[in-house]
Design a protein that fits this description.
Blueprint lengths: L3 E9 L2 E9 L11 E2 L4 E2 L5 E2 L4 E2 L7 E4 L5 E4 L1 H5 L8 E9 L8 E9 L5 H14 L1 E9 L2 E10 L2 E7 L20 H14 L12 H14 L20 H15 L12 H27 L6
Parallel strand pairs: 1-9
Antiparallel strand pairs: 1-2, 2-10, 3-4, 5-6, 7-8, 9-11, 10-13, 11-12, 12-13
């Protein structure tokens, strides 16, 4: 059961939905500590006061804003909680938009919003059904952890999910990172689309979507615990190199994708522009043959009875 990390309400016009917030994701990464390699003693970060030159405990530590080199303005947690903002106590919905209009780059971590008590059940269901039927998402503002943020509300398996969003000025422009202009043929684009079709999945289930990095770390830890030699990295059959022939690389990629899906990689061939023009030539040839036959027929004399 995930712990609640915030309690407040969703403000939907004049409708208020009391809710609790719990993280919607889990981190299963393996964590490491720092150790002194000579004797494997634990290395810890200790907090020292620069003026008194002594270690201080967590109860003596607070927040502050450095106004100048000599002046620091202390800010308490109580003052942060009592900020004169409507979003400090509520997730305030400000608009509804189609999901396709939201740049995925702006969407961050997700949280489940659960109704707090029986009184919240009906307005919670109202908002959930309104989102489902409208096929839209809500854009909201909220203030947590010392800052105000944008949020996106959507429905997932009957629950309302809040995604943290970045402000527009937090998104960098990719203009300076774009490659120089290049030309692509229609055949290359068609081949890429064929490859995409062969790699299309209905879901993200399967061995391809497992965390093999964590599994490999677990194998190393287990081997060293048992004083065995850790497993070695298997060398790939073919080393990746620079792609010289793009069409050849696309053709080979399609064959590999079909082989992974259990299809015969040699049965189907990549679409070609020239192949599309052949039926037109055959049709024209047929028309010419029909015209010639008509002329021959018209030139014959009718048989006498």
């Amino acid at each position: 059961m995930p712990r609640n990390i915030w309690s407040g309400a969703i403000s939907f016009g004049l409708v208020t939905v009391p809710i609790s917030v719990a993280s919607a994701t889990e981190d299963h990464s393996i964590r490491f500590h720092q150790y002194h390699l000579q004797d494997m003693g634990r290395v810890r970060v200790r907090k020292y006061c620069e003026l008194e030159d002594r270690e201080v405990d967590q109860g003596e530590i607070g927040k502050g804003y450095q106004l100048t080199k000599e002046q620091v303005i202390p800010i308490s947690d109580e003052e942060l909680q009592e900020l004169p903002l409507p979003t400090a106590k509520a997730i305030e919905i400000v608009a509804f938009v189609p999901l396709d209009s939201v740049d995925p780059l702006k969407i961050g971590e997700g949280y489940y919003l659960t109704p707090s008590g029986q009184v919240a059940a009906k307005p919670y269901k109202l908002l959930r059904m309104a989102l489902e039927r409208s096929r839209k998402v809500a854009v909201a503002k909220y203030a947590w952890s010392g800052r105000e943020r944008l949020g996106l509300l959507r429905v997932r398996e009957g629950a309302i999910v809040l995604h943290a969003m970045r402000w527009p000025d937090e998104i960098r422009s990719p203009e300076e990172l774009l490659p120089p202009p290049v030309e692509l043929s229609d055949d290359e684009i068609d081949s890429a689309l064929t490859l995409m079709d062969n790699m299309t999945r209905e879901d993200l289930e399967g061995a391809e979507f497992q965390d093999t990095y964590t599994e490999a770390l677990e194998q190393i830890i287990e081997a060293k615990r048992e004083h065995r030699e850790p497993p070695k990295l298997q060398e790939p059959e073919s080393k990746p190199g620079q792609v010289v022939d793009l069409m050849a690389a696309l053709n080979e990629s399609v064959q590999q994708a079909r082989a992974l899906r259990g299809e015969d990689a040699d049965v189907h061939e990549m679409p070609k522009k020239t192949a599309k023009k052949q039926p037109a030539k055959k049709t024209a040839a047929k028309k010419t043959t029909k015209k010639a036959a008509a002329k021959k027929t018209s030139g014959r004399r009718p048989r006498s009875a």
